[in-house]
Structure formats: structure tokens, C-alpha cells
Amino acid sequence: MPSKMNMAPLALAALLCVSNTALAQEQVVKIGVTGPLSGANAFAGKDNENGVRLAVEDLNAQKIKVAGKTLRFELQSEDDAGDPKQGVTVAQKLVDGGVKFVLGPYNSGVAIPASRVYNDAGALMSTVGTNPKITQGGYKTVFRIVASDSQVGGSMANYAAKELKLKNVGVIDDRTAFGTGIATEFKRQAQAAGIKVAGHEFTNDKASDFAAILTSLRAKKVDAIFFGGYAPQGAPMARQMKALGLNVPLLGGDTLCSPEMAKLGGPAVGENVRCAQAGAIIAKQPNGPAFLTKYKTRFKRDPDVYAPSFYDQTMFIAQAIKAANSLDPAAVAQQLRTQSYQGVVGTYGYDDKGKLKKTTVTVYTFKNGALAPLASY
Fold first, then answer.
1. Local structure of 256: helix, strand or coil
2. In terms of C-beta density within 10 A (0-12 exposed, 13-18 middle, 19 or more buried), how is residue 97 classed?
3. pLDDT digits (tens, 9 = 90+) for 60-85
4. What are the strands of the beta sheet with 250-252, ordered from one edge?
């Protein structure tokens, strides 16, 4: 019989053996997230990250197996600051670190150049960047997980013509890839619907004073303004419209459908703001209320615009990994294009260009500081 002094080393050796066996049966899968974690749009970047984090936690609880190994998903989040140059640097850092699946970028202007880095490295990129150019590069592992500018801009133009019955609008864009893309699509489709575009003005995504632009459009007697840009500019624009007596609707895309609009705009943001966001009304989806509760319990706040979409795509990627029985991004991408997935904000399925085959766009306004849905297209 071994002495007590010999028992400890033997027990330790046995424990190490079991531990090494467990590790040998486990496969780490790094999930990258890239978005603005600093700057004016940091609220959106953190929200997107939270959506992926929640999915990673749910997936690890499922103990998914591929090729006989249990997968352990790990989140690696990087700040691209909404800047194209930094976005490319972050993309290179992620792929150099062995990350094969990336959620983001948030900004179209970052997604366009970063997509080439991910494609060249054979990594899979899933973005909410809405500029159509993102899926026109012919990259087989790039996916847009929401509606494009043409779909969102078109829905708002349709709503403006049929529901608001607008005749004469002004357009402002912030010259970013997103802002220019969605403003151009709204303008094109509004004109096709018989709406006159009285003027197209320009600003930037760091601006805070819009008095000159708004005064110019007021003189042209516009009955609405469409803004292609982000909430940190949209909110002060709404305040300045009110101060100038320009009491017409402020229209925009998904980036204005953010609690940040009400937070920054205060009483100037209400039913005068109309925004179009990709996806169905989450609270009315079968799994929507449960997700909203889970998110708030986990992060002590309500989700912003895209946390549900990032959650859904992360879960869809995991489903595709299981179906492919592989961690090869090309094989996973093929499954994403051939399968469908029922997420918390709708059904996902992609064409050969990485665009959603079918998508819903919902128009919202603000009531008592909260988003209120008006119509879905």
C-alpha cells in the first residue's frame, strides 16, 4: 500500500491526465467582434458586442461538438473606432491571431476596406454595414446580416410618398459610406415615387452645427428632411430644426432608430422623427420577448439597434459549423448560403453574394423617448 506521502503525487498525476484528456477533446473557436468601442458611436459598438457575447455564452452552454471535439467559443472584441484605417489594422490583427469568424464592422466605411483583408485571409465576415458595395466585391465569405441601403432607403421613400404624402423634401448626408449610400437611395427612390428633392446638402460625422444647412432648406419650403448619418448628429439636428421653427419630419435610416436619439435629443425627438430599420418588430416575433428579457437581465439595459441581429448571426454561424462538421470558413459560408435560420428578429438566408434573400424593413417613430413601430415593408 502506498504511503500518504506518495498519494498526493499520484492523485495529482491522475488529475493532470484527466485535465489533459479534457483539453484534447476541446476545440477553441475564436469569435471576433469589430466596431466603434470609442467615440460618438461607442454606444452602438458596445451593443453589438453584447449581442455576440450573449450568443457565445448560450453556445458554450450547448456543448456543441464538431469532429468529435466539444467547441468552446471565445469572444475577442476590438475597437475600430468607426475609422476605415483602424478597421483595416484591426482586421489584420484578428486574422493574424487565428480568428476565422468576425462579427462587424458596424460602419459601412470600415466594412468596405476590411472585407478585402478578411477575404484574403479566408475568414468569414458578417456585417451590418448597409452600403451595397460591401457585397459587390465577389467575396464568398462576406455577409450582410441586415437590409441594404437600397432596401432601407426604398422603404422610407415608399413610406414618405404613400403614408406621409410628401411633395418636397430636402436631403442631407454626412459623406460617410453609409450616409451617402442611404441618402442616395432615398433620393433616387423618392424621385421615382413623385417626390421633388429641393436640395441635397452635405455635412460630416463630427459636425454639431447644422444651422446654415437647415436655414437653406427652410427657405426652399421643404415638408421633410431626410438625413443620411448617425444619431450623434441626428439628435442635435432635430433640436436645431425645432429652434429654427422648421417643424417638419426628420427622416432617416436604421442609425436614427436608436435610444441614443431620444437620449441626446430630449423633447426635440418625438413623433417628428421617422426612421427605417431592417428587421421585423422584435417584440412581436415568437422568440423576441424572451431575448429582450434575457438581454436586459444580463446587461442591465435594453438592446439598441443591432444586438439582436449580431446574436442571430452568431447562432446561425454555429448552426452552419455543426452542419458542415467543420471550422473551415469556406465550408461554413456554403452552409449559410444553403440553409435558413429562424432568429429572434426574423428568418435568415443568404444568396450567392452574401445578401439576405428576404428581409423586412420597419418604420418607427419615438413616443415618450422610446421607439414605436408604425409600419413594416
1. helix
2. exposed
3. 999 999 999 999 999 999 999 999 99
4. 196-202, 168-173, 224-228, 250-252, 273-278, 361-367, 370-376
